Amino acid sequence: MHRPTYSNPPTAHSPPLHHPVPQHVSTVPMMRSPPPPAMQQHAPQPTYGSPYQPQASGSGAGGAGMYPGYGAFLNDPTAQMGFQVGKSAVMAGQEYVGNNFGRYVNVSALKHYFNVSNTYVLSKLFLVLFPWRHRPWSRRQAISPSGQDGYFLPPSEDINSPDMYIPVMAFVTYILLSTLLAGFHGAFHPELLGLTATTAFAIVIIEILALKLGCYLLSISNESQLLDLVAYSGYKFVGIIITLVLGESLNRGQGTGGWIGWAVFTYTFLANAFFLLRSLKYVLLPENAATDRNTVARAQRNRRTQFLFVYSYIVQLIFMWILSRQDSGAAGSSKNLGSASTGGGGKGKGKF
């Protein structure tokens, strides 16, 4: 059986496609990303924000690279004007103080008395409390660069030189310690601080006036005499502080009363008197070989010696006794107050 052969059918052609044509044509802009900004170097603008904000690091004087806000603030004209005004005000204040305060006190000479060191302070305190075996007592001098005039060495270089640091610190410590001990005894009141300070200051003023009067009557002159006398008049507070502390500690809270308090007071008084007698000898009894040869100079020297002895022992005994009795008076008033309250309570109980 024979199959017939079929030929390939003709290729079919599809009709063309027609896309719809829009009736209203509108132009749509093409959306494109903006180009990246070009890296340009601008001049630094003054910023007043926090200097700790993260900023670009750079190098600059005075740490401006790490914290540019500070450098920009200092370069600001307004800040510069404020600095100039503040500097002018400070200079005007210093000039005013120098012109007015310098009339009464020699500031440059006063600085000499505060030129101290730790070694000097410890050695001086030991000398004030234990002056018995100290040698020598004369002050050391140095020659000026011109080679003509000599001057005394500062306290940091000479233990025999008087200073202002220890007397001032002892004065303040005495006032605070007295009020503190009065509080322990239950006799503190707000007026006690001012009363103690006024009493101590009045004693120092009276002592200095008495010394100046004695120096005037005995014809004793010295350029640095006043500041030396002020310094020496303040060393008594060291012994008074030791008396108050040991009397309170060893006398079972009875203050400076009792035989223990009197024993400590006697020792500190004698130590202070001996220290002043040896130290003030070179202030009140200056060496002058030319005047020591005649009789008038010897008689005047004897009067100066008597004045020095009276000041070192009798005057210091009175003043130190007044200052050390402040604490015992507070202790006595607290005891009287406690006994009065106890007696009042007993009477009240009897009534009921």
Neighbour order of strands in the largest sheet: 1-2
The overall pLDDT average reads: 75
Number of helices: 11
CA radius of gyration: 45 Å
Element order: H for helix, E for strand:
HHHHEEHHHHHHH
3D shape? elongated
What is the structural class?
A: mainly alpha
The share of residues in extended strands comes to: under 5%
Number-wise, the strands total: 2
N-C termini distance: 158 Å
pLDDT < 50 runs, ≥5 residues: 48-52, 54-64, 289-293, 333-352
Helix content: 55-70%
What summary fits the major beta sheet? 2 strands, antiparallel
List keywords for this structure.
352 residues; two-stranded antiparallel sheet; 2 strands; elongated; disordered C terminus
3D architecture notes:
The protein has helices at residues 68-74, 77-101, 107-113, 118-129, 165-184, 190-217, 225-233, 236-250, 258-279, 281-284, 295-351, and strands spanning 141-143, 150-152. The radius of gyration is 45 Å and the shape is elongated. α8 (236-250) packs antiparallel against α9 and α8 (236-250) runs parallel beside α11 (295-351). A hairpin with a 6-residue loop joins β1 and β2 (150-152). The model is unreliable at 48-52, 54-64, 289-293 and 333-352 (pLDDT under 50). With 352 residues, it is mostly helical.
SSE blueprint and pairings:
Blueprint: H1 68-74, H2 77-101, H3 107-113, H4 118-129, E1 141-143, E2 150-152, H5 165-184, H6 190-217, H7 225-233, H8 236-250, H9 258-279, H10 281-284, H11 295-351
Antiparallel strand pairs: 1-2
In a nutshell, what does this entry contain?
This protein has 352 residues and is mainly α.
